């Protein structure tokens, strides 16, 4: 979007993904990827020859009878609820990217999505159809079934549009939507996080009801454990992404203050008198506000330097070495998870290193930001030279 590209995302749904894995194909792929010998025999023995039985208990008055179904051999799928089932499924679709050559396809367990971009809508829709056809051929070759009715297409745009692309998948049209839920995050077509903030706030309000039911029956330590399990985990998930929205953080913070007041037994609903300040309660329970959780997850040390052209690379190395002790100290003092040192180095003539793209992803910056900073560096150098010549 920063490069004026048209972008859409397709979030695919695989019907009964773990239960439809073809075991012979899966074992052949593991063997091709270097799993052989005892390890392959162990996988084969655990995936083949399974004969599940259904057990039912029938009660009639005081009498009780246990009924067993006949044994049925299972030739497809991974063990239901098994710890290795997601890993086995990933191993079965590890070559998906070799089939889907258009767009950027991401596969996380049984959640598959494709991000497609183009210069105009016509080319974008054509690429989306080709990408969907490639994924459909891959699933047919691996005996997997894509569910078009549960798949969702979201076209990212700055404003609402009445026209939606018609992407066909196995004879059905993929429904278009303004927002979709992917890996627990509510993604909107306008790239705003209002829906996700409302979702997180709703989960926090549910936790308020839970704390009210537990308060008086368990000790304070147990209540704090409930807070971390049902509230802090929800707020922390993906906050590096959606926490960049100030409105989203403020919305969640209102619900968090309500939750903290309920934890302390204070009034958390509106009334004739103002609510008590939540700040002492955060200090009392040693809990972080959602703004601090965001900083906890994404802390950066940024230093800007404008050296000579020949000293750009050396300056980057010196900056990273210079701030490394500070990063370690801040991490220990504030109990932070990660601190990244980001040196922004542009020479007096606007020269930057080749790895500037990584820096743009970290901050994040765009090509326009780079051009503005290079322009500022060059104009600053010209201003110094002009003043020196005027002496």
TrEMBL record:
It comes from the Eukaryota. Keywords: Membrane, Transmembrane, Transmembrane helix. The keyword Protease does not apply. Residues 1-187 form the Reverse transcriptase domain. InterPro entries: RT_dom (IPR000477). The chain crosses the membrane at residues 7-27. This is Reverse transcriptase domain-containing protein. It comes from Cloeon dipterum.
């Amino acid at each position: 979007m920063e490069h004026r590209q048209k972008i859409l995302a397709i979030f695919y749904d695989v019907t009964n993904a773990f239960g439809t894995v073809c075991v012979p194909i899966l074992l052949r792929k593991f063997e091709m990827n270097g799993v052989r010998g005892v390890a392959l025999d162990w996988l084969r023995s655990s995936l083949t020859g399974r004969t599940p039985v259904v057990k039912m208990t029938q009660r009639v008055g005081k009498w009780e009878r246990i009924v067993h179904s006949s044994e049925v051999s299972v030739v497809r799928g991974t063990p239901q609820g098994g710890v290795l089932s997601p890993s086995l499924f990933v191993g079965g679709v590890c070559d998906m990217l070799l089939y889907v050559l258009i767009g950027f396809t991401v596969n996380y367990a049984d959640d598959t999505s494709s991000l497609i971009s183009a210069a105009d809508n016509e080319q974008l829709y054509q690429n989306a159809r080709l990408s969907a056809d490639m994924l459909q051929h891959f699933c047919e070759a691996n005996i997997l079934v894509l569910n078009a009715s549960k798949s969702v297409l979201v076209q990212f745009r700055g404003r609402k549009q009445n026209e939606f692309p018609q992407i066909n998948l196995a004879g059905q049209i993929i429904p278009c939507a303004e927002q979709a839920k992917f890996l627990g995050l509510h993604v909107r077509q306008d790239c705003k996080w209002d829906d996700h903030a409302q979702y997180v706030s709703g989960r926090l309000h549910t936790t308020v009801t839970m704390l009210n039911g537990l308060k008086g029956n368990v000790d304070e330590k147990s209540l704090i454990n409930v807070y971390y399990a049902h509230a802090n985990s929800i707020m922390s998930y993906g906050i590096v992404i959606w926490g960049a929205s100030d409105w989203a953080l403020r919305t969640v913070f209102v619900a968090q203050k309500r939750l903290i007041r309920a934890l302390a037994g204070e009034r958390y609903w509106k009334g004739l008198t103002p609510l008590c300040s939540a700040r002492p309660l955060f200090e009392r329970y040693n809990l972080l506000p959602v703004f601090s959780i965001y900083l906890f997850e994404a802390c950066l040390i940024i230093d800007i330097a404008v050296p000579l052209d020949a000293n750009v690379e050396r300056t980057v190395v010196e900056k990273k070495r210079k701030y490394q002790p500070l990063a370690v100290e801040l991490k220990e003092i504030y109990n932070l998870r990660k601190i990244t040192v980001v040196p922004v180095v542009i020479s007096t003539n606007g020269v930057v290193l080749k790895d500037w793209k990584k820096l743009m992803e970290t901050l994040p910056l765009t090509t326009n930001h780079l051009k503005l900073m290079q322009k500022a560096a060059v104009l600053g150098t010209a201003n110094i030279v002009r003043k020196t010549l005027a002496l």
